[in-house]
Design goal:
This protein has one domain (21-84). By secondary structure, the protein is α+β, with helices and mostly antiparallel strands. Helix content is 30%, strand content 33%. It has helices at residues 2-19, 70-76; strands at 22-26, 32-35, 39-47, 53-62.
Amino acid sequence: MKNRQKTVIIIIIVLLILFFPIPNGTLDDGSKVYAALTYKAIKWSYIKDDKSIGLNKATIYWFPNNYKNINELRKIYPNARGNE
């Protein structure tokens, strides 16, 4: 029974390490970036014509795209931000 508990605890720790999001900063337009070892989540924002910030949507980029920088992701997925 103790081996099974140790195994479950190790699996939970590994999953937390792989999937726990860490805030990675805010971009100039107000978009927020969260990163983990297996994915990158971006809460896209955009600057409106009246200089206010509008929230658009969140996008998750799974491995291996999670290691690309924001400019590469914008080129690959130009419509990720929706209407601007």
